[in-house]
Design a protein that fits this description.
It is a single chain. By secondary structure, this protein is an alpha/beta fold. The chain has a domain of 246 residues: Rossmann fold. Helices cover 45% and strands 17% of the residues. The chain is built from 22 helices and 16 strands. The strands form four sheets. It has a six-stranded mixed beta sheet with strand order 4-5-15-10-11-14, sandwiched between helices. Helix 1 packs across helix 6, helix 3 packs across helix 11 and helix 17 crosses helix 19. The longest helix is centred in the middle third of the chain and has 20 residues. The protein is globular and about 60 Å long. The relative contact order is 0.14. Bound molecules: pyridoxal-5'-phosphate. Pyridoxal-5'-phosphate (PLP) binds next to helix 12. Pyridoxal-5'-phosphate binds next to helix 12.
Length: 496
């Protein structure tokens, strides 16, 4: 059955998947959502024997219904190849009774690679299908990981340019080095004086700037997005939840039909929304456990039904979750409002005007499958240390937030359901915070000395992504104010 996409703020207009991917964000500022969530056509038993690539096809064909089999399989083959350092693509590692779904085996060692290694191929295919001749300009705000993953995906891709804005003082040293050493004539990286929310809001404003769009069109250019507001990011993320369940079944860790819980360290609410979509496709998932760091706006939302971003923005050791405006929550709000675009648009208008909104009791009742909690900085560091001391397994800071929240959940509920924890980054990406958590004495070491020490104590080889930046030279050193983003974009595109 065909799936069409409409905006969370306007129920009227419907577009095909390829159109939604090309456009990124709807003209009215809303996010594209599927008109229904398709049900898996293969059984979990059948999926158990499939490779990651085959599973990806089984899932994505149900959402991207205007792609031909050949197109979609081509995109999948080009995405999930030797850029990943394991044929499994997303291996499951058991530690202390939970299953860590390692989503960091791609080119930039964070889970963003899972979707951003395929998005450029989906985008190019979408442009061809729709006879779009314009050059596509990917405009991206990053809290650290999306930027590099998108740069790696789009660098050198003909017919595209990519511009990344990151918070100058809000990313880890390794994250920054990964981005500013990016090669490729079509890439542009800019640090902004501001935080991730400023970058994301600035990017959304540029998307909605009708005048700018007109000027760009005159020069044969159009914007699209590599952020998780693009449905082409979300759909590939559904795949690994299906894959994880099928693998647990294959390895006889669970019985057919047995429910599992899923824990996701959350920032922009994209990854956990993908898990929610997987559940709605028929994957036996019981609880969706949303783990936040000290920027716990989502925990408060799940506890009270009030979303309130009016609070201090905290810089934590899990910077990719330092977010107060979780964009993808809008897709959930729309759904629990009964797919009511008008009601959702009202709440989003309140969010942008007053920084807050409240959902109704009726909507709140539909959130029963979600559980929210948070881990503070001390709990996160403590989790890295105790896991390392007990098992030798080294968690990154984001995964440690999830793991700490999972412990709180089990303490709270005594729920013994088998659990998959999304492991969203390699510890090598956050070496300093990870090593300091294990022993503060490491703080005296340099960034790459720490990398070698982590490799030694964790007994894991240094990932290629880190070796590459060890000696790489800085190519991008632009910094701007958050009010200058438009000017910077025009300059890069040669429009001034
Ligand atoms: C982006 C990111 C997250 C948060 O994911 P969302 O989809 O934004 O909720 C968590 N951990 C890491 C390492 C990330 O890069």
């Amino acid at each position: 059955m065909e799936v069409l996409y409409s905006s969370t703020r306007d129920g009227e207009k419907k577009v095909t998947a390829s159109r939604a991917i090309l456009q990124g964000l709807s003209e009215d500022g809303g996010l594209f959502v599927p008109d229904h969530i398709p049900t898996l056509s293969a059984t979990m038993r059948e999926l158990a024997d499939k490779s990651y690539q085959e599973t990806a096809y089984e899932v994505m064909k149900l959402f991207l219904t205007d792609f031909t089999e050949e197109e979609l399989k081509g995109c999948i083959a080009r995405a999930y190849d030797s850029k990943f350092d394991t044929e499994e693509i997303a291996p499951l590692v058991e530690a202390e009774g939970a299953y860590y779904l390692e989503l960091f085996h791609g080119a930039t060692i964070a889970f963003k690679d899972m979707a951003l290694s395929i998005l450029p191929h989906l985008m190019i295919t979408s442009a061809k299908k729709n006879h779009v001749d314009n050059e596509i300009v990917i405009l991206t705000a990053t809290s650290g990981d999306t930027g590099k993953a998108a740069l790696a995906g789009f660098a050198g891709v003909e017919g595209t340019k990519i511009i990344v804005f990151y918070p100058k003082n809000g990313v880890s040293p390794i994250q920054e080095k990964q981005m500013v050493t990016q090669k490729g004539d079509n890439t542009f990286v800019v640090g902004i004086h501001g935080n991730f929310d400023d970058a994301q809001t600035g990017v959304k404003t540029l998307f909605n700037d009708k005048e700018l769009a007109k000027e760009m069109a005159a020069q044969g250019l159009q914007f699209s997005s590599a952020n998780s507001i693009n449905i082409g990011r979300l759909v590939p993320q559904v795949v690994y939840y299906v894959y994880a369940y099928a693998k647990l079944l294959k390895e006889e860790k669970i019985a057919d039909g047995e429910k599992i819980n899923v824990v996701v360290p959350t920032g922009n609410f994209g990854n956990i929304l993908a898990a929610f979509y997987a559940k709605n496709m028929g994957v036996p998932i019981a609880k969706l456990i949303c783990a936040s760091n000290e920027n716990k706006v989502l925990y408060d939302f799940f506890s009270t039904g009030d979303y309130d971003r009016n609070r201090e923005f905290k810089l934590t050791t899990s910077p990719s979750m330092d977010i107060l405006i979780s964009s993808n929550l809008e897709r959930l709000i729309y759904r629990i409002a009964g797919n009511d675009a008008e009601k959702n648009a009202e709440m989003m208008a309140a969010l942008s005007a007053e920084g807050k909104y409240s959902i109704t009791q009726e909507m709140k009742e539909q959130l029963a499958d979600f559980y929210g909690n948070f881990a503070d900085e001390k709990e996160t560091a403590g989790r890295i240390k105790s896991m390392y001391e007990d098992t030798g397994y080294v968690l990154d800071t984001h995964t440690a937030v999830a793991s700490a929240v999972y412990q709180k959940y089990v303490d709270d509920t005594k729920d013994q359901t088998k659990t998959v924890i999304a492991s969203t980054a390699s510890p090598f990406k956050f070496t300093r915070s990870v090593m300091n958590a294990i022993d503060p004495k490491y703080d005296a070491m340099g960034d790459f000395e720490l990398v070698d020490e982590l490799s030694k104590i964790g007994n894991v080889a240094v990932p290629k992504a880190i070796e590459e930046i060890r000696t790489a030279s800085v190519i991008h050193d632009h910094v701007c104010d958050k009010t200058e983003m438009k000017a910077v974009v025009k300059q890069f595109l040669g429009m001034e």
